[in-house]
């Protein structure tokens, strides 16, 4: 049956009631340290999730800053109480216990209900939530619109849980296209969409393994553009690799902890799957603003950053998701569009050794002043504090000399006329923002790169402004 999908249709209020079963499998390393803190204080977040929107960002951002309080969760949910051990810990090698944790967290923290089969991947909520938090940062900071605008995303390989579209729609006015190739996953995903009354906002598509990952070819997709693509690709390159990984972790093979081969294995593993996405992106270019993927291997991230650079893609973002003491995942995004993500979204890997993987910096500190020094005289010579767009390197001496020459040749009359459309710049080469932050101890002035493809232009402008501000000190 062919369905027609239009992004932006209205959301209905979720109907409710918790449902049972689930767990993850491509998340090796059961986070043994992810044990419940035994605080006797009720956790304020347990008063329930707020309504979606930017005003709820703070609640969602800090949900998993500390480990979930298993004692508190057990009080809230008898199904969870039944799987917590007498010592208050959870046995992460027990698929039933980990599945219940996922169900309980989704219900308690997001008001979501979920049903999962025992032989498919069960997603760990904090890790999947981290991806959504990062996407929010990426999309919010690569638009001149205020944060929180409605967006249409594509989740490639949504799984039985349909977890990304569920989490995304719960937090923002987003709509999703969600695809999968596995009938059982599709059946459960459909059920989970329905359980949460999200049929008008999540459009599920059955795909063949040989179909394009981005389903613009599908007759139901009427939109010409998608704001973002997200993907948690099959991780392993062979069933053997998957089985030996499950054995090393003392996990039952083909359970919700390990997933099924159809969802966890593809020829060439995640590197080859993301390679497919990259090739499709090179053809589709601006039809998607951000192409993103999660990665389970650091070596894949290194190889893919290299491939992006070889393809001439200068606008990309990397980050890492850390859960507990052992589990680490990475995410990579790339864009053909000129809007540059904020530093925290684009360069989310802190260790110095990963500096070589990072895209160019998008923030530069211009000046710091003691808090009692008035800032106004310092910034008076910058024409505008706020957002700016430059079509050329207008701050360089050479540009100013060139402009003076042109003006004297054109004569006064010409200068009084508006520029003709052909004289107007076709694109903005540098969009920037200057921020003045008055803290308790100091005032900082910083420059933020918002738009453009040329890091040298941004650096040069930063140097120019910095000199101007220091002249003024
Ligand atoms: C690692 S699982 C991720 C599931 C879910 N998104 C999550 O994060 O828990 C990969 C998913 O991709 C699906 N998949 C594999 N190849 C695909 C393809 N060519 N197109 C769409 N989905 C695919 C699998 O069936 C599986 O559900």
Automatic annotation (TrEMBL):
It holds the Pfam family Methyltransf_10. Keywords: Methyltransferase, Transferase. Residues 407-425 have a biased composition (Polar residues). SUPFAM superfamilies: S-adenosyl-L-methionine-dependent methyltransferases. Residues 1-58, 406-425 are annotated as: Disordered. InterPro entries: METTL16/RlmF (IPR010286), SAM-dependent_MTases_sf (IPR029063). The keyword Transferase applies. It comes from the Eukaryota. This is U6 small nuclear RNA (adenine-(43)-N(6))-methyltransferase.
